[in-house]
Design goal:
about 200 residues; alpha/beta; 4-stranded parallel beta sheet; about 15% strand; two-stranded antiparallel ribbon; 6 strands; globular
Length: about 200
């Protein structure tokens, strides 16, 4: 295996990148400007030292506390609970949610050996209890594990003085009923709204 094959193999291990895409990336890099290559390799080499979880919410940040948690203009009475750090930027980039976030670090998945104690659930409970939180929005993925985690968190929060809501799920905008799976269609009917 030569150096090009090794780089191609490494890129193909990244999520969403198959062998063809990995080969294209590796070949692009061979022809890339040396200044770009040096900067890119330095960024990759130092990524894990520069980026860490926020000490409050768990989102990725270069500082002890992320810019979202530091922003005093955000609605501090609402916390949106997500599975992974990258979910924070996905939701925040939509510019529809103006509260705070809490990253669980995964979902309850007993078959994979992940229980509630491996997630940041206790930190969430501490925040709700100590930060005057009025609403917790659970934004876990609409999977069996995501639903199980949402139900578990809902049960833990029932004794707290806050409302617990879940993101709606159903037919995407521009979707065609012919191609919607049965579970999504069922969720759409259960979550229907009055016009």
């Amino acid at each position: 295996m030569n150096a090009l094959d090794e780089v191609t193999e490494s890129f193909s291990r990244l999520p969403g990148i198959g062998k063809k895409s990995a080969s294209r990336i590796a070949n692009f890099l061979l022809k890339a400007d040396p200044v770009f290559m040096q900067r890119f390799s330095n960024q990759l080499a130092t990524l894990q030292q520069r980026i860490r979880p926020c000490s409050v919410c768990g989102a990725w940040t270069e500082t002890e506390i992320c810019p979202i948690c530091s922003d005093q203009t955000r609605d501090r009475s609402v916390i949106c609970v997500v599975e992974q750090p990258q979910d924070v930027s996905t939701i925040d980039n939509a510019h529809e949610f103006h509260g705070l976030f809490h990253v669980l670090g995964g979902v309850i998945a007993p078959l994979e050996g992940v229980g509630p104690d491996q997630l940041r659930i206790h930190q969430l409970l501490d925040r709700v209890q100590n930060e005057n939180v009025k609403e917790v929005i659970i934004a876990t993925n609409p999977t069996v594990e995501g639903d199980t985690t949402a139900l578990y968190i809902q049960r833990l929060l029932k004794d707290f003085n806050c409302e617990v809501t879940r993101l709606a799920s159903g037919i995407p905008a521009g979707g065609d009923l012919e191609y919607i799976d049965r579970l999504t269609l069922a969720r759409s009917f259960r979550g229907r709204v009055k016009l």
